[in-house]
Design goal:
This protein has about 180 residues and is an alpha+beta fold. The chain contains 3 helices and 10 strands, in the order ααβββαβββββββ. The strands form 3 sheets. It has a 5-stranded antiparallel beta sheet with strand order 4-5-6-9-10, covered by helices on one side. Strands 1-2-3 form a 3-stranded antiparallel beta sheet. It has a two-stranded antiparallel sheet with strand order 7-8. Strand 2 and strand 3 (about 90) form a beta hairpin.
Length: about 180
């Protein structure tokens, strides 16, 4: 009795390889840029943390009869054991950074102004949170609340709430450190 061999022919094997190659060509671009999406998600997480911390501390100030939401300085609220200084009822950028966990991020303060900046007498601080100090890194910008007309006194206050946004970090002097020329635009 003659034994019959079984197996795949060369043509069948080549067809399977061609089909797998076509599937890989369509699937590869979908998974090639996962690092960019992961970095965006990481920065979005920090943005959400800063926004919620700002909202919680603002609500704590409004709920606390001893916290004057019209005071430029001197008011504080307690957030999970951290004392947060308030500026016009919103958190100070440096204390907000202390109240958040920014492991793996660099937190710095910028004082560079934009076209929408208030007068020099009431210039708010800017806090920038960057994953790494390098050009074209995603970052989070926190501009403290300020009195937009620059006048003192509750009767004249026009309080602008904090600006919290994401952007791209531009290190204009390539020094590798956060300074007044750097922006998160």
């Amino acid at each position: 009795m003659k034994k019959q061999q079984s197996g795949f022919t060369l043509i069948e094997l080549i067809m399977v390889i061609v089909i797998l190659g076509i599937l890989a060509a369509f699937a590869l671009p979908r998974f090639a840029d996962l690092s960019g999406s992961a970095e965006q998600a990481r920065v979005d997480g920090v943005l959400a943390s800063v926004k919620s911390s700002s909202a919680i501390s603002h609500a704590a100030c409004l709920a606390n009869a001893g916290c004057d939401a019209n005071a430029a300085t001197g008011e504080t609220v307690n957030m999970d054991g951290s004392t947060v200084s308030m500026i016009y009822g919103y958190p100070d950028g440096s204390d907000l950074a202390d109240a958040n966990d920014f492991d793996g991020f660099t937190v710095g303060t910028l004082v560079a102004r934009t076209a929408e900046a208030p007068p020099a007498a009431s210039v708010p601080g800017q806090m920038v949170v960057v994953p790494a100090i390098a050009d074209n890194e995603l970052c989070v910008l926190f501009v403290e609340a300020f009195d937009s007309d620059g006048t003192a006194g509750p009767a004249n206050l026009t309080i602008v709430a904090p600006v919290i946004s994401t952007g791209v970090f531009q290190d204009v002097d390539d020094s590798g450190t956060i300074n007044t020329g750097d922006t998160c635009s």
